[in-house]
Amino acid sequence: AGAAGTVLSQAALLAALAWGLGGGAPGMTVLALFLVLATAETIGILPRAGTALAAAAAGARRLLEAADAAPPLAEPAHPAAPPSGHAIRIEALRFAWSPDRPPVFDGLDLDLPEGTRLALLGPSGVGKSTLAALLLKLAAPQAGRITMGGTDLAELASEDVRRRIACLSQDARLFDDSIAANLRIAAPLAPEAALWRALDRAGIGTLVRALPEGLETRCGEGGARFSGGQARRLALARVLLSAAPVLVLDEPTAGLDAETERAFLETLEEVTAGRTVILIAHRLTGAERPTRIIRLAGGRALPAAG
Q1: Which of 82, 135, 165, 172 could disulfide-pair with 235, CB 3.0 to 4.6 Å?
Q2: What confidence tens digit (pLDDT) does each residue in 223-255 have?
Q3: Could you tell me which PROSITE patterns the record lists for this protein (predicted)?
Q4: Number of domains present in the structure of the chain
């Protein structure tokens, strides 16, 4: 897009020169050159504007398609009351994304008492993120069940489940809005004091205070205003703003350099104390301190030493 903008600007300048050399009045030639130079920056960004417009149109089309689509899971006709506890149990779980594909899980059993810090390990495609989707009621098992506080997730309203299970993923998105607005996605009525507490706990409060606009600083699309590590900490602050007693951390440090990854994991260990934590990862770095380590293989959970 940048090269195309340069070509457009140069073409406009050459056209003005050619018009002058071809018999245009000297005064008008100078005026034409002045106008071309004055609008060169605007001409130069036209290709990028076109690209951005196309991307926005594609995004709008996906939003409209999503709005017209049926919910991924039907809500129970008479939802059960939210449980008082949040211990999670997975019993004889079987799940496949479609009938013509092999099952991701086939007889998976897993027991997570309250306060468990579980590291769930395995290579890509083994089902780690699928388990996160099942816990968040973005998908439903074909056999077996998942319970929270003794109540089957199938009997609970999705909203009630997601109030108790929050997720921080590798692609946790920041929107082109203020820091405050991005944080309040998790808690729309949260006062400023709560936002600052969450930012401080996520280790990014000092940076936000140093910004001229503070909480009103715009993040840029996808968090472009910040580095990868800073954007991930803002996303963590959003999760911490939620009172959910269960946190699913799905590859939360993917794409970060080793130093930033270690610092981020150390922050996670500190700020998630007292909650049930399910850390989904390819491998452990040594900064994590799980109480249990499980490897997924062949659709089942296998104890692992690390």
Answers
A1: 172
A2: 888 988 888 889 889 988 888 899 998 888 777
A3: ABC_TRANSPORTER_1, ABC_TRANSPORTER_2
A4: 2
CA distance 164 to 211: 33
- Write the pLDDT tens digit of every residue in 184-234: 988 889 999 999 999 998 889 999 999 999 999 999 888 888 988 888 889
Q: Please name the residues in contact with 279: beta carbons below 8 A apart, sequence gap of 6 or more.
A: 117, 118, 119, 120, 249, 252, 268, 288, 290
| Assigned token pair, 67 | 């709005």
Phi, psi (5° rounding) for residue 132?
A: -60, -40
66 close to 137: Cβ distance less than 8 angstroms: no
Helix (H) or strand (E) holding 19: helix 2-21
CA gap 306, 293 in Å, rounded: 6
Supply 288's token pair.
């994590």
Q: Compute φ and ψ for 62, nearest 5 degrees.
A: -65, -40
Domain end among 39, 68, 97? 68
State both tokens at 37: 């130079």
- Domain extent, residue 279, equals 88-303
Question: What pTM value is reported for the model?
Answer: 0.70
